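Long-time lurker. I teach an intro course on protein structure, and each term I like to show students one example going from raw sequence to a predicted 3D structure in token notation. This year I'd like something fresh instead of my usual example. Would anyone be willing to generate the tokens for the chain below so I can use it in lecture? Attribution to the forum is fine with me.
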Amino acid sequence: MNSEEISEQRSEQRIPVSLPVSIANTEGITRDISLSGICFEAKGFFNLGETVRFAVEFDNQGSHLTLNCSGEIVRLVNRQDKVDVSVKIIESALKTS
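-- Reply from a regular --
Happy to contribute to a lecture. Here you go:
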């Protein structure tokens, strides 16, 4: 599958951004995010097709937001001691604190 075929599968534009992600017993950093999906880099073991719950942290001028999500892992790319995890978001809720 080439990059043109992959981009045709995406229904939303991805925005490159680095934000902290908490998932299971590990933490990571986002590579990009869209309305329907996210890609993050983390240490750990993940399975293609697995349903995962994760939280993305946003800080903006003194306010803190947490995006709690569940989604399906649709792509994994091993990179040295970490893995890029692409997730199709199934459910999300924004929480302020």
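Some talking points for your students: Helices lie at 3-9. DSSP finds one helix and seven strands in the chain.
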